[in-house]
Design goal:
single chain; 390 residues; alpha/beta; VC0802-like; Rossmann fold; seven-stranded mixed sheet; elongated
Amino acid sequence: MCLPGRSMRRYELIAPCHFGLEAVLKREINDLGYDIISVEDGRVTFAGDEVAVCRANIFLRTAERVLIKIGSFHAVTFDELFEKTKALKWEEFIPQDGKFWVAKAASVKSKLFSPSDIQSIMKKAIVERLKAVYKISWFPETGESFPLRVFLMKDEVVIGLDTTGDSLHKRGYRKLTAKAPIAENLAAALIMLTPWKKDRILVDPFCGSGTFPIEAAMMAANMAPGMNREFTAENWQHIVDRKCWYNTIDEAQDLVDADAQPDIQGYDIDEQMVAIARENAKLAGVDHMIHFQKRPVAALSHPKKYGFIITNPPYGERLEEKKDLPLLYQTLGQRFSALDSWSMYMITSYENAEQDIGRKAEKNRKIYNGMMKTYFYQFPGPKPPKRRDV
């Protein structure tokens, strides 16, 4: 409980994620102790109370945001959209001085497909509802922010109130980035798709601004990704009591393993990127757990067995870089072959990746990185022998 005597309201909570990573997010939500209601392309819906709003925002590594579901309905005309939006109990969420807007509308295979029209009609409908409830003719919108997100899929409309604000991939540590950085929540999800554990070596030979090594170090130390950032719903005291946020931060801090000593390494050919990665790791509080070094992929080697390469190599999205890709991937393949008993996991949109590496992946998984179709190639090595207790 957050406040004695205050009854907990139950919500349907929606957590959007990258397409192709719903199963990872579902597992995370289950691990937090919440019941899954449904899993759809790009989102997982689950049941929870106001404490769940705080815990999902602070603990989920792979979600993009956490929405409170306001309602859902079928609509094929703008009149229907207006009337059914107006019928929802907006006054339970938006106070008289609240600032509210439809921040994003996404429509797939639906008769209503213009995002800007959907946004403006829904805003008008909410205004009409609240004018009647609050008996006012004008909204000052000087209070807290209440951004809304709307999904239309095959004429089914789902409306969510965004509790998060800036996307959850913004952990707060990445002040400086590479040219084509991988989002923090995507990096975390990809690590979670591998059998890597904190007692195994992890090397990223194309570390850029350090996202894979930093996310891995945060996992090794059991650091909640949202511990050091703010959320829009922190100011909604009529929905989520502020004490819930304090209690969840205390829970997260108690779970941190300050003594974790993983073997995590990040290499990059660009000295400036190595400096940026070090600074980002410092901001994340994990710089003591990661060894960053300027090193080309041709110099990738390690004396120990059973390590992991988890990486996001260049894709050659720029035309002038495309000519360098075959040699780059051939070199990566050669260095990986020379590493005894290692595993490699790699996300790329480069179509000749397997051919140039010289090995077919045991599995590859299609993942949309934004609008770009990429593949997560998986080359698992043997498991290390079980240690015998002496």
